[in-house]
Structures are given as C-alpha cells and as structure tokens.
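For reproducibility, we list the full input for the zinc ion complex.
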Amino acid sequence: MMGKSHFIISTGITLSVMNLLGYEITVPAVAVAAVSSLLPDIDEPNSLLVRSAVPESALRLLQVALIGAAIYLYFAGIAEPPWHIVLALLVGSVSFLPGRRLRQLVMLLIALALFAFADDYDPWNYIAACILVVASVVPHRGITHTLYAVAGWGALLYFVSLGMNDGGSLWIAGGLSYALHLLADSLTQRGITPLPPLPFKLRLKLMSTGTKKGSGVEKVCIVLTLLLVVYVFVITPS
Ligand SMILES: [Zn+2]
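The corresponding predicted structure, in tokenized form, follows.
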C-alpha cells in the first residue's frame, strides 16, 4: 500500500476514534498519529517518511561536500604523506555509497546530534532519535511490521509522555495509528507476519498491489476513512 493511503487511513481513523472516545485531540497527538501512520515502512528505501527526513537533494549536497572535503584533505597538508591520500580516499569513498546506505549514515548522524541536545526539547528529541536509530539499523521489511513493534512504539510514547499530563492521548494516537497501518497491510497480497518467529501470517489478499481490484479496495478504504472523519468532526462535533 502507498504511503499516502496509509497516511490518510491511519491518521483519519485514529483521530476519529480518539474523538469518539473523548480524548483531547492536541497538536502533538495529531503529529504523533501522522508520523506513526508512516513509521512501519521506514525500513523501505522509498518510504515517504525516510524521503522527507533525508531528501534526495540533501544526499546530493552531502556527496558533493564529501568529495570537496576529500580534495581539501589531499591538498591541505593536515596528514603526513602517504596518509593524506588514505584520508582523502576514505572520506571521498563515503560519497560513493549507495543512496540507501548514505541515508542510513545521515540518519545515524542526525540521531547522534539529537541525543546530544536531547535535554533541550524533551521528550521529542529522544523520540526522533530513537526512530532514526531504529530506521538506520533495522533489516528491510523486518521487525517493523510485527506486534512487538506496535508494543515497543506504544511503550516508548507512553513512558516519554508520562510527565506531560496529556491524559494518554499521545501513546493512544501513536499506538493506534501504527496498529492501523499493520491492519491495512494485512489486507494486501504481501500480508504481515505479526509474531515472528511464529510462521503465522495475516494476509487477506483483498488488495494485490498494482492490480485494478487492489487499487479499487485501497480507494474504498480511503473514501470510508474520509466519510468517518467528516461524520465525526463536521456532522457531529462534540
Ligand atoms: Zn507497511
């Protein structure tokens, strides 16, 4: 399923359900719901979340900067020969890493910076840094589509928001939105394996990606979500 569909369905249903249950819809709760709707796909190289966190243009800029740094190190005379060549090759070679690896490197560096200044924007920096670390180390399509990940993400949000007195809206928003992403994925051909190493697979095969019927079901889900949002927030505002 496409990132945009996940974004609309997970975020829309989460905020509607929270409103119906009487939770306060705060700006942080909306932000957490939106991020959580895309978070499970962060191990996909073309994930919407990854692309917006580290855009293509930033990667190109980094590559140019690295090559520039390599040339500088070669000529600046900082290291004794032959180490200036070694140093220059080392720095320069990083810019030739494939896009996915380079992205992971950038995400790790941003995470380190966030951890360093984490106390200034508690708890948001911790949350962002944890996401980036996980994103840069998880294997492709691995642990993020499991119930463990839902529990882990919910627990992380629960504990970091303990001191915020938000009435639990933050971890409910994040946990629900994340779980809805997995539920939507379990409708697809690919399905999910919610409890590895148990081989049990959730796969309803309602949507085979790329087929007409598949995108039809996807559109129906989006329309139903939008109807729910209109019903909850426009027709019966509390
Ligand atoms: Zn997914």
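The mean pLDDT is 84. The chain is about 65% helix and 0% strand. Both points were considered when choosing residues for closer inspection.
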